[in-house]
Design goal:
two-stranded antiparallel sheet; protein transport; mainly alpha; Cullin_repeat-like_dom_sf; 752 residues; 4 domains; rod-shaped; transport; disordered C terminus; Exo70_C
Length: 752
């Protein structure tokens, strides 16, 4: 037959119309005790007496419904319904046969016999749904609509929602939450009925019934959405004893229902007190959330359910980041931030990032799977993926901003910390996103999470490039140190201390730096492959494309970081040689090179990582250089002193020339005093090197002086002449030598 499609009420995601009234009512402070999973509709005992006003009140509800639909009550629907009409109507429900006495009582109360309790009404609705499923979309004759049963069913459900919202009713928890005719079961039945009626909505009576049941479903969904949000919000924050929520959740944890889902009444549920770190601990809560989610999704309110869940959990996860010290900072703010402040933010970022990957994300995965179980696994996957992406974007944006900051060598270590955090957490994502079969092709694994891993890898690569540039910036620091003022006393230069301490600390990240330099080398070669014969290119740092210069012949192609380290050491050596030339005294230049060389060697010996990277060959060469500086010092300082103790020129035809001998003693005394005055102000801070220098000088000078005295002191007249020319005994000479290299400040003032 010809039917005109009429307007069908549509659900609203915001529930902004009539549901707003219910929302305001639900925000009042009330003590409601209910588990939706175990909520059962009240039924009327057939054997119990019916109150005098029961039929009147129920009849008012029916009249109000009819009035809203614009239908005048028919005679058979009024309280004056005849027994014959009542008997005829009740014949459609053979499961509840009507006796004359019961029929008369029901007629007097304005009710339809057989329809006074929820089980009977549910049976009528189920029977009608079965009939509708058996007909095609365009039947010649529509099945008879049990409008009174449907209206009674919808009205009772609506009344239950109203009682529950106002807190006017208390419900006894059931140990069988999935029992038929529970509250959620009735809502599911109402939703199916609405959908079934909408197929034949061109029929006025069907349209009116659809409007009524649809309004009830819409009201129920608004209520469930609010319940869903309340439970999620309550569970997402720490529970303090003194804290009171503005609107207590309907799934309250009072003694009467706190263990509604336990197998035994004696089992106690754990105290709530859950926070973001343990949103899944309450199995009871998860079951309640799962019940609400299932009801909303099956009723066509999947979008609203997912939105509420996603917003609540994202807020909770962002609060967790804040609790770990990480605040959302824009890229511009990061770029403008001082390095001292940024260091603290990076430390908080590391803590928050590791907690998110190792704690928050796995627990959110468990919560999503618990609330959206097997039938809705795709929904759980989508929600979780979006949650993770949203939080990771905040964390990755900060990391990317740090990689964009101005490059300087001192930032290297914090950048490497962030690089390692990203690198080490990528395998954890495989645990959070286990490979699952695709819905379209079970043989193909769903790799939709790879885009998240790709984003992390991309930011990690940018941090790695920044780390390479920062390490190579050390070369710039060395080259730019061109001061013309020599270090007093030939002590270790501050540049040497800075570079070696920097390298010692950097090489604690040896494996990470080797990794970032290899990645940089691959990326650099790929970038330069299209630019033949263009030299180093524009990599943005001082690193060479072949991994370095000085170590090129020592396997640098296999370890670009080691080659770069050799390059830094060669630059430092060249810089120190230039600074050594600032000293006018060549002996002091050699002391300066010895001091700095010894400091470098000791630092290398104290770091297994640097020793491995530079290799034994490089270390042996450095030790050889030190020995050469030592020889040069002895030659420059003591060769002239030893020249005074030679026999040449003292004897002519076997006779000792006293004037020449006296001049030799005078020269020796003068040189020794000058050396003592000057070199006692020089600095050799390494005790072992200081001792080696003194011992080596004494081993050469003292025996030569003792021998010279033994051979020629007798030629001087005893008394004044001896005291004048022989000022030092062998022991005095050794004591003078032992006072060298102490860094005496008084001597330094006199030294020019």
């Amino acid at each position: 037959m010809e039917r005109t499609q009429l307007h069908i009420p549509q659900k609203s995601s915001s529930f902004s119309t009539s549901s707003s009234i219910h929302r305001d009512e639900k925000l009042c402070d009330s003590d409601r005790n209910l588990s939706l999973r175990s909520l059962r509709m009240h039924s009327t005992d057939d054997d119990a007496p019916i109150p005098d006003d029961a039929g009147v009140n129920d009849n008012k509800v029916e009249k109000e419904v009819d009035k809203e639909k614009g239908i005048e009550s028919s005679p058979k629907e009024k309280s004056t319904t005849t027994p014959e009409d009542t008997s005829t109507k009740s014949s459609s429900t053979p499961e509840t046969p009507a006796t004359p006495a019961n029929s008369a009582t029901a007629a007097a109360a304005g009710e339809v016999p057989g329809h006074s309790d929820i089980p009977s009404l549910c049976e009528d609705v189920d029977h009608f749904l079965a009939v509708l499923r058996s007909v095609d979309d365009s039947p010649e004759v529509l099945p008879e609509l049990p409008d009174i049963a449907i209206d009674r069913f919808a009205s009772l459900v609506e009344k239950e929602i109203a009682k529950y919202e106002s807190g006017a009713d208390q419900w006894s928890p059931s140990t069988a939450p999935d029992e038929p005719n529970s509250f959620l079961d009735c809502l599911d039945r109402a939703s199916k009925l609405t959908n079934a009626l909408s197929i034949f909505s061109s029929e006025p009576s069907y349209y009116q019934a659809m409007n009524h049941t649809g309004a009830v479903v819409h009201h129920a969904m608004a209520f469930l959405e609010d319940e869903f949000h309340t439970l999620l919000a309550e569970e997402s924050k720490p529970q303090k004893p003194e804290t009171k929520t503005k609107r207590p959740p309907s799934f309250s944890r009072h003694e009467s229902d706190r263990c509604a889902l336990q197998q035994a009444d004696s089992e106690a549920c754990p105290a709530s007190g859950n926070d973001i770190s343990s949103p899944h601990q309450s199995l009871e809560l998860t079951a309640r959330l799962r019940s609400i989610a299932g009801a909303m999704i099956s009723s066509g309110y999947e979008t609203e359910c997912c939105q509420v869940f996603s917003i609540a959990r994202r807020n909770a996860m962002e609060s967790s980041l804040t609790d770990h010290g990480f605040e959302k900072i824009s890229i511009d703010d990061v770029l403008r931030m001082s390095w001292e402040s940024l260091e603290g933010e990076i430390a908080s970022w590391k803590k928050a990032f590791r907690h998110a990957i190792t704690v928050s994300f796995p627990q959110e995965r468990e919560l999503c799977d618990g609330v959206f179980d097997s039938p809705h696994r795709a929904i759980a996957d989508g929600i979780f993926r979006n949650l993770v992406r949203g939080i990771l974007i905040q964390l990755l944006n900060f990391a990317e901003a740090v990689a964009m900051t101005k490059r300087s060598a001192e930032k290297l270590f914090k950048v490497l910390d962030m690089y390692e955090a990203l690198r080490d957490m990528i395998p954890k994502l495989d645990e959070i996103f286990p490979p699952i079969a695709s819905a379209d092709d079970p043989a193909v694994a769903d790799d939709s999470h790879l885009d998240i891993k790709t984003e992390i890898s991309s930011v990690r690569t940018r941090l790695g490039e920044a780390a390479v540039a920062m390490f190579c910036d050390l070369e710039s620091s060395i080259k730019s140190d061109t001061g013309k003022t020599p270090v007093p006393g030939g002590a270790v230069h501050p540049l040497t201390r800075y570079v070696m301490n920097y390298l010692k600390y950097a090489c604690e990240y040896k494996k990470t730096l080797e990794q970032v330099f290899r990645e940089h080398q691959k990326l650099d070669r790929a970038t330069s492959s299209s630019y033949d014969d263009e030299g180093p290119g524009d990599s943005g740092n001082n690193c060479r494309r072949d991994g370095g210069g000085g170590g090129g012949g020592r396997g640098s192609s296999r370890n670009p970081f080691a080659a770069q380290l050799v390059e830094v050491m060669d630059l430092l050596h060249s810089n120190l040689e230039a600074k050594a030339k600032l000293y006018k005294d060549l002996a002091l230049s050699n002391i300066f090179m010895m001091n700095n060389g010894r400091y470098i060697v000791q630092k290398i010996k104290g770091s297994i990582e640097i020793n491995q990277l530079l290799g034994e060959t490089w270390c042996r060469k450095k030790s050889s250089d030190l020995r050469q500086y030592h020889k040069n010092y002895q030659r420059e300082t003591w060769s002239r002193v030893l020249g005074c103790l030679k026999d040449e020129g003292l004897q002519i035809k076997g006779s000792v020339q006293k004037p020449v001998l006296k001049e030799r003693f005078k020269s020796f005394n003068s040189m020794l005093e000058e050396i003592h005055k000057t070199q006692s102000a020089w600095v050799v801070s390494d005790e072992q090197l200081q001792s080696e220098l003194r011992v080596s000088v004494s081993a050469v000078v003292v025996p030569a002086y003792r021998s010279f005295l033994g051979r020629f002191s007798q030629y001087l007249d005893p008394g004044r002449q001896t005291e004048k020319y022989i000022k030092f005994g062998p022991d005095d000479l050794e004591a003078y030598i032992d006072e060298l290299f102490d860094g005496n400040p008084l001597s330094m003032v006199r030294r020019k």
